[in-house]
């Protein structure tokens, strides 16, 4: 029996069973990028975490509807457009395309729906009208505000104290705002010269930040859905305000479980665009393979802080290299391309060595506990240790038993890889790509390496072992390790 999935709910500050609104189906909304600049790796970590959540839920058999929005109407976008002299909507559309290119390179699953604020204006206006009708919002000039004191549950997510917020509010009201209370927040902002605007019952204008997600989630997942995700920085005020306005409008619980991902730490400080200490995702992907970066993200629990460094990226990619080298070796053994130890006819028959499915059980026990992907990676490591044992030092001499077990374990590896978003390329292709990137990074001559490999194969075939050893030593001075294999000489960058 599969383990019960338990998720840490920020609202309750405890792990709770995943109990979908509709049995067998999960609706998940993740706050996507505000598209005024390139996505950085802190953002990418959050999106990778929830991408893997979706993959695991589907692996467990749930029908998942995954919604991740684009905030393409926002103060930051307008500010960036003014700085570049670009139309705000056009700038946002450009960065949507840039984000999608980056997400594809990182191999993030496309969401089932990727709504944009600019395409959800009627729904936003509709919710604001409901709030006004229910006395939870008011018009002030061309603006509309949510009246925080009219919603009794305000701050139930962030656990903040209302009196403390009021005491710290001071003169936070912006010039021209006519709010009844400094804590009230904008649902609709009257049009200003040079800013995008749409018609509404309160005059031309544009939506406030928080109401946008309330409208998009309700449109595509309903007024109550299962999981809402985002970074820790969104708990207050964004998600707190989402809850207040959505529940005040509908009278229903917005979301049954709130999930928040931890920060990515860069040189002792949280990475953020406002601090100017960001590493763009596309720049990181020039330094590390996409699956290496994914492994790095998943190696720390999604709720914990993750420290970013060049060494951590290098270690993650080296780990991926180990996995792919193992898969290559196993695939060659299974397909009979390894002439030194052919499994022989009928290798898929006979008993199994051990129980390959135990890794599936162990994986599920780990990951079902609040999406513990580091624990899942630990199970994956155990599986690969078993694969290496059976290929390098098989504990039995019965080839059919070894062969059938290798086939079964390889299938288990495929299933776990799908749940984690790893090993999506053929092993040979990934390893060649890795070698090419290393050659470029170290300024080596790939043609010369290939010539040395061919020369060493020829020397070994002629039993000219002194020449073979000389070539290996010469390669070592270049930082290249030549290795013997049943298929001939192979190479890799020396550690």
**Terminal Cα separation, in Å?**
43 Å
What is the count of DSSP helices, taking H or I runs of 4+ residues? 16
The number of domains is 3
Radius of gyration: 28 Å
Mean pLDDT: 90
The neighbouring-strand order within the major sheet is 4-3-9-10
Describe the model.
The two termini are 43 Å apart. The chain folds into three domains: 6-286, HUPs (Rossmann fold, 3-Layer(aba) Sandwich); 322-420, Four Helix Bundle (Hemerythrin (Met), subunit A), CATH 1.20.120; 444-493. Helix 1 (41-59) links the parallel strand 3 (25-30) and strand 4. Helix 2 (75-84) packs across helix 3 (88-105), helix 10 (310-335) packs antiparallel against helix 14 and helix 11 (358-367) packs antiparallel against helix 12. With 495 residues, it is of the alpha/beta class. It is built from 16 helices and 15 strands.
